[in-house]
Amino acid sequence: MPEIRKDPVFGRxxxxxxxxxxxxxxxxxxxxxxxxxxxxxxxxxxxxxxxLYSLPGKDGWRxxxxxxxxxxxxxxxxxxxxxxxLYTSMDALGVHEVVVExxxxxxxxxELPDEAVSDVVKTFALRVKEIKKDPRIKHVLxxxxxxxxxxxxxxxxxxxxxxxxMAPLRVTQELDGAAAYHKxxxxxxxxxxxxxxxxxxxxxxxxxxxxxxVTPYASCFSFExxxxxxxxxxxxxxxxxxxxxxxxxxxxxxxxxxAVSLPDLSYNLIVHTMPVQEAEAPHYHWHIEITPKLxxxxxFEWGTGFYINTVKPEEAAEILNSGKxxxx
Length: 328
Description:
Elements: E1 3-6, E2 13-16, H1 26-29, E3 51-57, E4 60-67, E5 82-84, E6 87-91, E7 95-100, H2 114-131, E8 139-146, E9 158-164, H3 169-185, H4 189-200, E10 204-207, E11 211-214, E12 225-229, H5 244-261, E13 267-272, E14 287-292, H6 299-304, H7 313-322
Antiparallel strand pairs: 1-2, 1-6, 3-4, 4-7, 5-6, 7-9, 8-9, 8-13, 10-11, 11-12, 12-14, 13-14
Helix pairs in contact: 2-5
């Protein structure tokens, strides 16, 4: 069974899940294993755990949510910590789901119809609302690994949802930073960023009435994109259903521009949101981060937490908006 252990120096939690080492890797299997069958393709539903949620399609389903067959966290267990001398551990309590975005194996998110991308966005919110009914769950992370260099093990377009019994260190640091800004200035830092970027314009890569996508001022990675709601809202799952299409439009536009300018695109997409059991907050604003994987994090970054970005965000936005290909 998986276990969560706490680092006594940094206070960060680490999931020990040896079973995940057994999950299939299509990048290794393709062309090497005869008879390989993608578990996410239509007709192969028997290769995954039972469907938790689905949307009907012309010949079956058009979107499907299942429990991860090789979960990092599992629903059974206790959120209480255990002390072992210096160390603290706990049951790997949580939820690990997979959102299969389409029955079509080779059709990435940016090539799906607008309605299909909107379905994905709405499904994310619906699943978080369902999962947070369990009071033991404190934080829910929605993320997408696209491409081998981003850590994906299967080619079929999918996203993941992992719910945890605590807010991770990265999340609490972000919340603390936003709270400190609000205490000092009386405003939300993300609202102020959106206003600044709309005024400056040179880092904007997509925009509509409700959402804004920019290459952030202090990007850690080349061609990193930040998607911000123009209206303040701290919990992603509270996204009004009427705005799902607008978010899908900006999301699709941003990824499409990355795919044009960055051949063989690999990226991580992460939804940053408030811990699910906390109230609406004036200082925090949910957002989406998209990080292309052009280079690997190396010794300097690991040793300092100090990143080196080789493409200024203004230059990245210019390339993305021009449709030019970036030579890596």
